[in-house]
TrEMBL record:
<dbReference type="InterPro" id="IPR023606">
    <property type="entry name" value="CoA-Trfase_III_dom_1_sf"/>
</dbReference>
<dbReference type="GO" id="GO:0033608">
    <property type="term" value="F:formyl-CoA transferase activity"/>
</dbReference>
<dbReference type="InterPro" id="IPR003673">
    <property type="entry name" value="CoA-Trfase_fam_III"/>
</dbReference>
<keyword id="KW-0808">Transferase</keyword>
<protein>
    <submittedName>
        <fullName>L-carnitine dehydratase/bile acid-inducible protein F</fullName>
        <ecNumber>2.8.3.16</ecNumber>
    </submittedName>
</protein>
<dbReference type="Pfam" id="PF02515">
    <property type="entry name" value="CoA_transf_3"/>
</dbReference>
<dbReference type="InterPro" id="IPR044855">
    <property type="entry name" value="CoA-Trfase_III_dom3_sf"/>
</dbReference>
<dbReference type="InterPro" id="IPR050509">
    <property type="entry name" value="CoA-transferase_III"/>
</dbReference>
């Protein structure tokens, strides 16, 4: 993406996450923030029940690393003129502001295309840019988790209530990746045809794509899938279930197709005799006797601690995983080996801040990026690059149009 300029007028995580991915890929992403308060998310002091350090802010670093921040009050005519000056040099305009705000502040597609007809205009929304709820806002907790059916599917029916979304900005980050992919396709299309397109991605559509197979099944049958309570299994395949260890850990077996894995699996579970037991030695009898198989595996795994199984099962041919927390992943050898964690300079001058890189890698190269900018940190630099004289910059500052 080197040589591609993205002009981002967006807040929170959903659309800014797309800008972060494009910045990871080499684009020059210019983030427009209010000259006084900046991105509203900078003021968040709590995330998922945890107090946040404003100088080491995950909800700012994750979706904003690698960008430059320019402070513009887009509600003023002077600020809008500066925005248009940047738009003239940009390949992509990226926003998640509501249609009402885009119209009021004159940065909807017709305003931006008036100064740059070849710009790709990308919108992120809660429920889509068409239909009766086009003007309704939302967050991933409403559009991605609650309304989409994802939260319902992941909440066991026996709970008698609804599980809250346990990961802040969960759908936002997935949706941001979708937007970045759409922008990449649009840039390719423009290169091939000369046509600049509009892009729309909603949190609702992001959730439905992520749950697509289950959504399709539901439309086919009218039945909805639900998560099961711990300790419950559908008893179809004993090699596909969660099993508790002696010290309360959990091992997930996920051998979807047991063919070719049966003997090796029983041996690793410490039950080699079952590989020759006609009830468990082939796929069909294994499925027919799944309930008994689950009982035997439950007893075997419950006999030893989590760390034993995590080491011992590394040589097993079938698929499995230790049940880890998000914190555990930070020290996961495989995650580290694949450069899933990136260190950036911390804005408070302290130890480096660790952020998660995007899932796409090129040529196995590690990611090099910079910390998220301070609000309005690069205003003068960017405007001088555009050719604005210092006297005009000072005048705009005095009027409060920029910071």
């Amino acid at each position: 993406m080197e040589g591609v300029r993205v002009l981002e007028v967006a807040q929170f995580t959903f659309v800014p996450a797309a800008g972060a991915i494009l910045a990871d890929w080499g684009a020059d992403v210019i983030k427009i923030e209010h000259p006084v308060r900046g991105d509203t998310q900078r003021g968040f002091i709590n995330m998922g029940g945890f107090q946040l350090d404003p100088n080491r802010h995950p909800l700012i670093e994750h979706p904003n690393r690698g960008k430059r921040s320019v402070g513009i009050d887009v509600s003023t005519p002077e600020g809008q003129e500066v925005l248009y000056e940047i738009a003239k040099t940009a390949d992509v305009f990226l926003t998640n502001y509501m249609p009402q705000a885009r119209q009021k502040n004159k940065f909807d597609i017709e305003h931006i295309r008036a100064v740059n007809p070849n710009i790709i205009y990308a919108r992120g929304s809660a429920y889509g840019d068409k239909g009766p709820e086009r003007l309704v806002g939302g967050f991933d907790g409403t559009a991605f988790w609650t309304r989409s059916g994802v939260g319902h599917a992941l909440t066991p029916e026996e709970l008698g209530g609804a599980l809250p979304q346990g990961i802040p900005a969960f759908g936002d980050s997935i949706g941001g990746m979708n937007i970045a992919g759409g922008i990449s396709a649009a840039l390719f299309h423009r290169e091939r045809t000369g046509e600049a397109v509009e892009i729309d991605v909603s949190l609702l559509s992001t959730a439905w794509w992520a749950a697509g197979a289950s959504v399709t099944q539901g439309m086919e049958t009218g039945e909805t899938m639900r998560s099961l309570m711990p300790g419950t299994t559908t008893s179809v395949n004993p090699f596909m279930a969660n099993y508790q260890t002696s010290d309360g850990g959990t091992i997930n077996l996920c051998i979807v197709s047991p063919t070719g894995y049966i003997r090796d699996t029983w041996e690793h579970l410490g039950l080699p005799e079952l590989a020759d037991d006609p009830r468990f030695s082939d796929v069909m009898p294994l499925i027919q006797n799944a309930e008994e198989g689950v009982r035997l595996i439950t007893e075997a795994i419950a006999a030893k601690p989590f760390e034993y199984w995590r080491r011992h099962l590394k040589t097993m041919k079938g698929q499995w995983a230790p049940f880890q927390s998000l914190v555990d992943l930070g020290t996961d050898e495989q995650a580290i080996a694949n450069d899933m964690i990136v260190e950036v300079e911390a804005s408070d001058g302290g130890k480096p801040f660790k952020v998660v890189r995007g899932p796409v890698q090129f040529n196995h190269e590690p990611l090099e990026t910079t910390r998220a900018p301070q609000a309005s940190e690069h205003t003068e630099i960017v405007l001088m690059e555009l050719g604005l004289e210092w006297d005009r910059i000072e005048e705009l500052k005095d009027k409060g149009a920029i910071a």
